[in-house]
Amino acid sequence: MSVTGHPTIVPVVLCGGTGSRLWPLSREGFPKQFWPLLSRNSMLQDTVNRARGTAFASPLVVCNEAHRFLVAEQLRDAGIAEPRIVLEPVARNSAPAIAAAALLAHEADPQALLWLMAADAAIADTDALHAALSKAAAAARAGRIVAFGMKPTAPETGYGYIEAGAPLSGLDGVSAIASFVEKPDLATARTYLEDGRHLWNSGMFVATAATLIAELEQLAPEVLAAVRAAVQGATRDLDFVRLDATSFAGAPDISIDYAVMEKTGQSAVVPASLGWSDVGSWAALWEVAPKDEAGNVAQGKVELYDARNCYVRSEGMLTGVVGLKDAVIVVTDDAVLAMHRDRAQDVKKLLEQLKANGHKEATEHRRMYRPWGHYEGLIKGDRFQVKKISVKPGAKLSLQKHFHRAEHWVVVAGTAIVERDAERIMLRENESIYLPLGCVHRMENPGMIPLTLIEVQSGSYLGEDDIVRFEDTYGRA
Predict the structure, then answer these.
(1) Which pTM was predicted?
(2) pLDDT computed for residue 477 by the predictor
């Protein structure tokens, strides 16, 4: 996209969601925006890739502090140069996140043009997106806060709607907003589909930093005050901007729709057909994914017999389906979801039940990601457990010790340098080392390929919180 003669557009990507209706794939520890749901790239990578070219600055990404290294790694893998990653110490919905982005952009340029978007939406037609963005940018430079309204293709009850008003004079393809409408019932959604005035609220907006700050000052001053204090108290750490935790926690938990868009006199909407979906459920993912001649979506190691209009995904285990229609089956290494496609919205209720009953699978995957790589549990028994650990080239774990467990490391691929008290030992494939309880130790991958090892822990307590860190490359306590 090229916007000759106009200010550079700053993509602002909101990356704090948990994607709870896409359980068991999406979980708090590794939400849907980090998964490759529709292409080889993750949804975050697909999102930032839509903002490539001379018209765009490097993205500003607002994310949960717990996901900071996932975000940084995925942006690096996508070839994004010098992104700014803003860390939310607590979740406070979209209005505080957008306020932080606007204040930070305003420091460099009060008239910076911000394109605000979620990290986890699907858009099929990038050319149409950029055409709509050009119209929105023109209106934003005139002082508007512009929403992207998606022309509905079905009577969708899972989306909010925007009612378009009269066209705005001098702004091609841009209309006033007559009203915002909550998620309707099916009968109402059918009337919206027919009347041509109602559009799906995509959650994408374009505005200048100055306009956003002015409207927040007038309409949500308590949000702006708390976030301004959080930005003023922010610290810079590696690629990250750490907002002050106490100040940010004082911001109201409120969306930008409620805080600003439903109250402002500066709102506008660009109607567009982009092949957009929020991919908020397995049914929505079935809608946008390529299908076979029987209407099935099959991903992974899946075999179907006499199945129709099903979504079946396996993350490794062979999954066979016979004679089902309109079903969703999702298989991970530690959980299985099976349901009728019409019940896709109820996954969130199931997840609440899983949490209430103490199932750790509700929020955690067996594979746990860390800034140096990842680990996954293989076997757990009485006073022992076995893990597989992968360390990225050039990465190292923290210098640490444990009070309740000893560890035995066996290298199965790559090379490791191990610090054990005063020793520094190199291990190659099929070599091992014993780390007695209480010893100070660290592992590093000095090589050019990932380091893989098997860790056997033994002791009276094997929790991840049995750790004392003396030194850490990644600033963890």
Answers:
(1) 0.86
(2) 65
Residue 3 covered by a domain: no
For residue 57, the domain's CATH number is 3.90.550.10
Please confirm whether the linkage preceding 450 is cis (ω < 30° from 0): no
Alpha-helical (H) ranges within 309-461 are 347-356
List pLDDT tens digits, range 103-144: 999 998 999 999 999 999 999 999 999 999 999 999 999 999
Which regions of the chain are under pLDDT 50? 1-6
Beta pairing class for 432-435 and 405-413? antiparallel
Where do the DSSP E strands lie in 18-169? 60-64, 84-88, 113-118, 122-123, 145-150, 161-167
Single-letter residue type at 438? G
Tokens 């559009």 locate to: 199
- Positive or negative, the CA dihedral 167, 170, 171, 176 is negative
Q: Which two tokens stand for residue 15?
A: 């990356």
Q: Name the residue range of residue 348's domain.
A: 294-356
Q: Is the dihedral of CA 186, 187, 190, 191 positive or negative?
A: negative
Summarize pLDDT for 283-320 with one digit per residue, the tens.
Answer: 999 999 999 999 999 999 999 999 999 999 999 999 99
Separation of alpha carbons 441 and 386, rounded Å: 18
Asked if residue 265 and residue 140 are part of one domain, the reply reads: yes
Look at residue 93 and give its three-state secondary structure: coil
